[in-house]
């Protein structure tokens, strides 16, 4: 409702600017109050995320790509859109450590050092698929049916979602996860292991810690412990 109201306000602002109407009748209208304290994205337990990553057959181009993409979202808290927008040159060395450059919403660039596992995944993918010399090419690509090797076509988000569902099913994971689940999984695991909300917000490129809190599922553990007290 708030988004629709904002659209109406912008329309009347434009009409006022063009002298089509004398005033904006929606200017004083307030949207409904809404407070969301918990996100809806399904998350994985750390052992499930590890099982999923370890289950991927990395003797193929598809396997190397899929492990690198999932690892990127888990370890750098990357949005799927930012991950799929990356070019090969967005994986680079700095101070003897591999870094990634994410192209976020609004044209913002966000750079993060790689976790050592992610460094291994990305290096194996780039070298195994011979991408290193194609610096301007897309990092994550579709698989050509005829050769089973990477094509030059960027991987669409819908294809990434289908891949995630397929990989999760193959790993025996029953949770109906999607692309965004890995961002939430990474943030929750980081916080459970002593990370601060403020640093998590910086790593996730959130402008407010309130947004980061939507990804924090630590309260779920408390809820599960409490419901088990109903000893009937």
UniProtKB/TrEMBL annotation:
<keyword id="KW-0229">DNA integration</keyword>
<protein>
    <submittedName>
        <fullName>Integrase</fullName>
    </submittedName>
</protein>
<dbReference type="InterPro" id="IPR013762">
    <property type="entry name" value="Integrase-like_cat_sf"/>
</dbReference>
<dbReference type="InterPro" id="IPR011010">
    <property type="entry name" value="DNA_brk_join_enz"/>
</dbReference>
<dbReference type="GO" id="GO:0015074">
    <property type="term" value="P:DNA integration"/>
</dbReference>
<keyword id="KW-0238">DNA-binding</keyword>
<dbReference type="GO" id="GO:0006310">
    <property type="term" value="P:DNA recombination"/>
</dbReference>
<dbReference type="InterPro" id="IPR050090">
    <property type="entry name" value="Tyrosine_recombinase_XerCD"/>
</dbReference>
<dbReference type="GO" id="GO:0003677">
    <property type="term" value="F:DNA binding"/>
</dbReference>
<dbReference type="InterPro" id="IPR002104">
    <property type="entry name" value="Integrase_catalytic"/>
</dbReference>
<dbReference type="Pfam" id="PF00589">
    <property type="entry name" value="Phage_integrase"/>
</dbReference>
<comment type="similarity">
    <text>Belongs to the 'phage' integrase family.</text>
</comment>
<keyword id="KW-0233">DNA recombination</keyword>
<feature type="domain" description="Tyr recombinase">
    <location>
        <begin position="39"/>
        <end position="229"/>
    </location>
</feature>
